[in-house]
Description:
This protein is of the alpha+beta class. The chain has a single domain (about 20-145), classed as Nuclear Transport Factor 2, Chain: A (Roll), CATH 3.10.450.50. Helices cover about 30% and strands about 45% of the residues. It has helices spanning about 1-20, 25-40, 45, 75-85; strands at about 50-60, 65-75, 90-95, 100, 105-115, 120-135, 135-145. Strands 1, 2, 3, 4, 5, 6 and 7 form a seven-stranded mixed sheet that branches. The chain is globular.
Amino acid sequence: MKQAVVLFCILFSSYSIGQQSFSEEDAIAIIDTFFDGFHQGDTLKMRSVMRKDMVMQTAFSNKEGKHMIHDGSAIDLLSAIAGRSEDQKWDERLLDYRVQIDGNLAHVWTPYEFWFNDDFSHCGANAFTLAKTDSGWKIIHLIDSRRRSSCGK
C-alpha cells in the first residue's frame, strides 16, 4: 500500500509538472511579440501569435459624436504593415499591461499612445483576447479604442 501511494505521488507530480501553466509573463510576451512585429514591419512575427481568423474591431466616436464600432480584419492590418512605406514610423507605446487568465482563456488590456513619425497622433486602449489552441496560445480577438482628447498630454 505504501508503495502504491509513493508511486501515485510520483506520477501525479510528474503529470503536474508536465502541465505547463500560462502566466501573466507568457501573455505579455505574446503581446510584445505582436508589437515587435508591428514596429519592425515583420508580419510573419505578428502572425506567429495571431490566430488566422483573428477578429479585429475599433471603438470610437466620429466627428459628430456618434459612437461607432468598426469591424476590421487581420488581413487588412497585415497588408497595411507590409505595405507601409519606409519613411513612415508607427510607434504604439504601451503604457501598462493588465492580465487576467482563466484556464484556456486570457485577456490583456494595454492602454497606449500612438505616435506617427515622432508626432503624437492619438491614445486609447487595446483589449486582446488570447486562447489556447492546438498550436499554442494565440490572439483571437483585438478591439481597440481611439481618441485624440483626454490623453494626458
